[in-house]
Design brief:
This protein is an all-alpha fold.
Length: about 400
């Protein structure tokens, strides 16, 4: 490694990098937990509050809408105050809103709490990704992203599991306990130094520069797709499982099983991206998702439905690490800070998530689940066609904006 490209401090020590990876994964865990916790609660909330399927979809979508609203503020905070400060502020908001969600008695109050949780989620995810991309060795970014996304899948396990407990035992004390976990994680965050900030002259958003890349535009379009699938399945599948006789525990176990599979396989997809480039892993995941999504609304066995839901959540979730590698490589090629890769993803997945949850629910209510899933399948096929062939890793320049930090 040349003298012009010294690794950041967190990258120089393997033990420190592993500890930092654990913290990053924990931050991503909590963000994914808050997204996933609602699934087992939906059938009960639908009856308790007398809301429609569309309103249930809006409640799920509120988190993504909050994340979209918080994307640019989170990026600006990370640039100016650092990733650690951003993480600490987000954890504080998570704690307060967890208590609020636990005691809320009306649909509007739940909606507001869910939206603000999304704002905090944007900050937490942004801080975690900036920390990782700024400290990870370039040649191992895919692998480490795979581990972080994989381990964070524990949040997708804990979310439905805790949601199932809350559905049975009540939301108050359960979400109060989650607030305590946020405080503990905040204390852990203070033990790590924030990654080096870019020079003051570079502390500006460079969206125009990065969006001029066709690779980035393709990645943005494709990143919407797994967000749509994951959100639509998170709304429609629990309601369908409930109709077929599944209880909150069975719904929670279905989502937990999908997360467990994701923990195992995502690091392999990340390493695959490091070796061959992100294009092939993304294409394989897109193609494999189509038949699963199309078959889901046609099965009438709750066990077969559970298996298909696990397959859909697992396969589409495999795209996240390769997509982040694609965006990271594009930032390196454009000579802009890695925070721009995080910003682009922050501005991409929330609209897809909101579209999948609220739009999927609206289509299902108006025309039926089969039409909703058919539209999603068509979008996945369009993503296959939009993905350029032979997308190899972009070799990073010897000097980058954060070199020598």
């Amino acid at each position: 490694m040349s003298a012009n490209r010294q690794p950041p401090q967190g990258q120089r020590d393997g033990g420190e990098m592993r500890a930092l990876l654990a913290l990053i994964s924990a931050l991503m865990f909590l963000e994914l937990f808050f997204f996933a916790v609602l699934s087992p609660l939906l059938p009960g909330l639908k009856q308790e509050l007398a809301i429609s399927t569309s309103q249930a979809g809006i409640l799920v979508a509120a988190y993504a809408l909050g994340a979209l609203a918080g994307a640019i503020p989170a990026t600006l905070l990370a640039v100016r105050a650092g990733a650690r400060t951003t993480a600490l502020g987000s954890l504080a908001v998570f704690g307060v809103m967890s208590i609020a969600f636990g005691v809320a008695k009306s649909y509007d109050a739940l909606l507001a709490a869910r939206f603000i949780q999304g704002v905090a989620g944007a900050g937490c995810w942004t801080a975690a990704m900036v920390w990782l991309l700024e400290t990870a060795p370039v040649e191992r970014r895919g692998e480490l992203l795979g581990y972080a996304f994989g381990v964070s899948e524990a949040g997708a396990i804990a979310g439905p599991a805790i949601g199932g407990v809350a559905a049975s035992a009540g939301r108050g004390w359960v979400f109060g306990s989650v607030a305590a976990v946020s405080i503990v994680l905040a204390f852990a965050t203070t033990r790590f130094a924030s990654p080096p900030q870019p020079p003051r002259s570079e502390r500006r958003l460079q969206l125009r520069t990065i969006l001029s890349s066709s690779t980035v535009r393709n990645a943005m379009w494709i990143a919407i797709l797994p967000a749509i699938v994951l959100a639509a399945v998170s709304v429609l599948a629990p309601l369908r499982q409930h109709q077929l006789g599944a209880g909150a525990t069975e719904i929670a176990l279905t989502f937990a099983a999908a997360a467990l599979v994701g923990i195992v396989v995502r690091p392999f997809f990340g390493r695959w991206s490091d070796r061959t480039g992100p294009g092939t892993p993304i294409r394989v995941a897109l193609i494999a998702s189509v038949p699963i999504v199309l078959v889901i609304p046609w099965v009438n066995s709750r066990w077969a439905l559970a298996l298909l839901v696990i397959g859909a959540l697992t396969v589409t979730g495999l795209m996240w690490a390769p997509l982040m590698v694609m965006l990271s490589d594009a930032c390196s090629a454009a000579g802009v800070s890695q925070i721009m890769a995080v910003t682009v993803m922050d501005l991409t997945w929330p609209p897809g998530n909101a579209l999948g949850s609220s739009g999927g629910a609206a289509i299902a209510q108006a025309a039926g689940e089969r039409v909703a899933y058919a539209v999603i399948g068509a979008g996945l096929l369009a993503g296959v066609l939009a993905l350029p062939r032979g997308a190899a890793r972009v070799p990073p320049p010897l000097t980058t904006p954060q070199a020598g930090a």
